[in-house]
Write a structure and sequence with these properties.
The chain is mostly helical. The protein has six helices and five strands; from the N terminus they run E-H-H-E-H-H-E-H-H-E-E.
């Protein structure tokens, strides 16, 4: 199962991003393949937060537009939202303690824990994920 990080999802929809073209192609290809996609729920939340936030200026989405995008993702038979399961806290404590994941890195630890629990591979443009032992990840934007 492939699990896109927030950054790839935002890049795919934010036309001002320097990664937009590659991320959009990656995401459209992913949605139309038979490979299973699991989007960590925290990445869904992050996508909506960033896409509707003032930092995107005139390129930001309305709340309804962002919610509709997530609804569209869920209409694909190969897409599901990944929620923390019963082992989440144990995994999160382990991965965050191993690298002292404080501050903004703690959010990455939450994503890593969800991916590990579900056996997913994180797809991201954020090399910080290499720091988490036991996490499988790749950067689909690398040429």
């Amino acid at each position: 199962m492939n699990a896109p990080d927030t950054n790839l999802l935002v890049y795919a929809y934010n036309q001002a991003s320097p990664f937009h073209s590659k991320a959009k192609a990656y995401w459209e290809d992913s949605l139309n393949r038979i490979d299973s996609i699991g989007i960590p729920v925290i990445c869904v939340h992050g996508f909506i937060r960033v896409m509707t936030g003032s930092a995107l200026g005139t390129g930001r989405a309305s709340l309804e537009e962002a919610l509709q995008i997530v609804d569209e993702w869920q209409s694909y038979p190969n897409v599901q939202i990944l929620n923390p399961g019963s082992d989440h806290w144990r995994i999160l404590r382990t991965v965050s303690n191993r690298i002292n994941a404080t501050g903004t890195l703690f959010t990455d630890a939450v994503i890593a824990a969800i991916a590990i629990e579900h056996g997913a591979v994180i797809h991201t443009n954020d090399s910080d994920f290499a720091r988490f032992p036991g996490l499988r990840w790749l950067n689909p934007l690398r040429s």
